[in-house]
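Re: [ENG-882] Designed sequences occasionally contain unexpected residues at chain ends

Forwarding the minimal case from QA. Structure tokens:
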């Protein structure tokens, strides 16, 4: 899968090399929150956890009945459709019929950088998906309940409020500042103005990302609507100006729109995503950044996968579990910093269309971000020599080339993504 290890790699290792389970009683896994992150975790755990707990494994999802789940994050990278296929035998066609999903073959960038428009495609003509977060959450809540997952309406203030052996916290965004969280140092955007425009079919099979004078607009096409969102900085640009620009943008496409929704956000990540052997965090409780490149859903799939590896190893080898947890925390922190780099990279090139306060500040921050990340610079250098059509380029064997092609950077990028965006942005 793009941006994550194969979904069963760690399972194969544990099954081949582990001794019989240490725990001789059934275990209980609690997920706190039933937003997209909580649902993805429940999909993973309900399928793959029970085989490692032969005395029984109960999956419980706790949610606050007085608070609605947040319906944000409606674009994926490659992992989500592969996860749904592996876990539930679901095709994208079926996803379209059940939670309004549509194909996503890449991202169309308009007005970015020095060279105008360009397209960032997925490798090998693979496809990701767009989906309705609300429909996704509601559909899988019903299906998982049929499969034995318990959904419990209960407000959980702290982990000790519930009886569980393992806890995945998906309670949503924290109140910042917070001692367990760190803000992204270079991120500039902190607001979104979102409009839902009804349609009769998906207008595109890709995501739109169009640079604007005061930020950029995303377009996510579903089966019966397209969502447009203007991402900006509320300290730099007045909301009334953003509203006028978004209205004009939509009017040019001959679409009607429902009332705008103004969302304010902060960009952050946890310092330790696995603070103890039995707890992990996912969704907005773990990470949030502006939606360029759909990093959030990709990270949620990664976290679910790594968490299962840590928890199942704990039953067999405590030292191995501790090592995996330490490595996972290091991987997570590095992944988040690198995800910030691939987002800020898009602001680095001079935008010939806009000489505004937003773009001036964005370029300064982007330059500082990329200069201070040596791994990012190395990936850029390697991307200049990368050619997916030449198996023995630079004297590589086929196996070495395939390893290089699959090499992943934080945010879900590999060398091919770097190559496409460096060329597209004119860097």
């Amino acid at each position: 899968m793009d941006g994550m290890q194969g979904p069963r790699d760690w399972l194969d290792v544990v099954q081949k090399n582990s001794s019989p389970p240490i725990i001789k009683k059934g275990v209980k896994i609690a997920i706190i929150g039933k937003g997209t992150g909580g649902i993805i975790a429940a999909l993973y755990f309900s399928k793959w956890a029970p085989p490692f707990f032969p005395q029984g494994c109960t999956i419980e999802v706790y949610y606050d009945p007085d608070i609605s789940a947040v319906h944000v994050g409606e674009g994926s990278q490659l992992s989500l459709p592969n996860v749904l296929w592996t876990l539930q035998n679901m095709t994208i066609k079926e996803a379209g019929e059940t939670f309004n999903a549509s194909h996503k073959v890449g991202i169309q960038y308009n007005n970015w950088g020095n060279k105008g428009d360009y397209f960032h495609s997925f490798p090998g003509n693979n496809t990701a998906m767009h989906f309705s977060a609300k429909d996704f959450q509601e559909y899988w809540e019903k299906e998982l309940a049929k499969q034995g997952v318990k959904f419990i309406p209960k407000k959980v203030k702290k982990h000790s409020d519930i009886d569980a052996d393992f806890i995945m916290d998906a309670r949503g965004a924290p109140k910042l500042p917070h001692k367990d969280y760190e803000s992204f140092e270079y991120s500039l955007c902190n607001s979104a103005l979102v409009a839902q425009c009804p349609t009769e079919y998906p207008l595109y099979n890709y995501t739109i990302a169009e640079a604007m004078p005061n930020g950029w607009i995303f377009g996510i096409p579903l089966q019966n609507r397209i969502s447009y969102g203007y991402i900006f900085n509320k300290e730099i640009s007045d909301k009334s100006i953003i509203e006028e620009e978004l209205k004009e943008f939509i009017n040019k496409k001959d679409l009607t729109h429902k009332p705008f929704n103004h969302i304010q956000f902060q960009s952050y990540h946890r310092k330790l995503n696995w603070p103890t052997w039995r707890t992990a965090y996912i969704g907005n409780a773990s990470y949030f950044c502006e939606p360029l490149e759909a990093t959030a859903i990709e990270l949620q799939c990664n976290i679910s996968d790594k968490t299962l590896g840590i928890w199942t190893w704990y039953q067999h080898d405590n030292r191995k579990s501790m090592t995996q947890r330490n490595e996972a925390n290091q991987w997570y922190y590095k992944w988040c910093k690198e995800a910030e780099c691939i987002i800020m990279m898009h602001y680095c090139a001079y935008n010939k269309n806009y000489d505004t306060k937003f773009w001036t500040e964005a370029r300064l921050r982007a330059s500082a971000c990329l200069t201070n990340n040596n791994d990012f610079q190395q990936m850029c250098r390697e991307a200049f020599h990368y050619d997916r059509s030449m198996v023995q380029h630079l004297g590589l064997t086929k196996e070495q080339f395939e390893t290089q092609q699959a090499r992943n950077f934080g945010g879900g990028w590999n060398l091919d993504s770097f190559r496409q965006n460096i060329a597209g942005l004119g860097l």
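QA comment: On inspection the terminal residues look reasonable. DSSP finds twelve helices and 17 strands in the chain. Proposing we downgrade this to a documentation issue.
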